[in-house]
Amino acid sequence: MAKGTEExxxxxxxxxxxxxxxxxxxxxxxxxxxxxxxxERLKTSIxxxxxxxxxxxxLAGMAGSFLVGGxxxxxxxxxxxxxxxxxxxxxxxxAMKMAKPALQVYATKLLKEYVEAxLVGGxxxxxxxxxxxxxxxx
Length: 138
Known about the structure:
elongated
């Protein structure tokens, strides 16, 4: 009888030890998972220290541009110096700033017409299903 209780005690001790080992393995696994989850660590670091990341990215970009780009010689300006050169640059700059929205509207219109033509199957507005063109005479 003593042998049976002794075996039960050993079995209970083994179950307890395996539960403790299982708990340690689970904790170690979650620790490794947190330590090696680089995207999550990066995300939390960026959210907690945004100014450091901004400064670091600016410095890295400048260093990269100096290393890769190197120093370039300044090319001669197309415009002459002096007051006439400044006026010419100003007028050219103003003209480009005024033309940009008009060009964007024109490009958007062309793109819209192209997409509509592709969706309709390449038919024009004045064509019917047979392909014949109808001219509206008024």
